[in-house]
Amino acid sequence: LKRIRERLSKANYISRKEFETYNNKNIKTVLMIKKNKVIKTKKNELMSITTMMDEFDSVSVVIFPSLYKTVSSLLNQGSYVMVEGKIEIKENVSLMANNIKVFKFND
Fold it and tell me: Who contacts 85 (Cβ-Cβ below 8 Å, separation ≥6)?
């Protein structure tokens, strides 16, 4: 990510170090999946809290059941993904995912 950060910034993708300035706002970013924790909701649906990171820091990405159904196969450790979602800052910074797609490096 470090080698393409300038191109990502020009395309309005923000880095993890900028998340604190976007509280309650929708953003798009590119992150690497570090760890995926699947949980069941009270309605017995699957969702996940996935730790993702860029070259600066990590963040918990919350993937609710409706999105999880369509993206669960993309959530592999070490994979790079484009995430669109809303930043929420409470005790920690979290990203509530609205969309996740595979990210391909085009050099």
Answer: 26, 27, 61, 95, 96, 97, 98, 99
Q: Which residues are registered as beta bridge partners of 57? A: none
Q: For Cα atoms 14, 18, 19, give the angle at the middle one, nearest 5 degrees.
A: 90
> Is a pLDDT exceeding 80 seen at residue 107?
no
pLDDT digits over 1-25, tens only?
A: 788 888 899 999 999 999 999 999 9
In 3D space, the residue among 95, 84, 74, 76 whose CA is nearest the CA of residue 34 turns out to be 76
Residue with tokens 């470090």: 2
Query: How many residues in total does the chain contain?
Result: 107
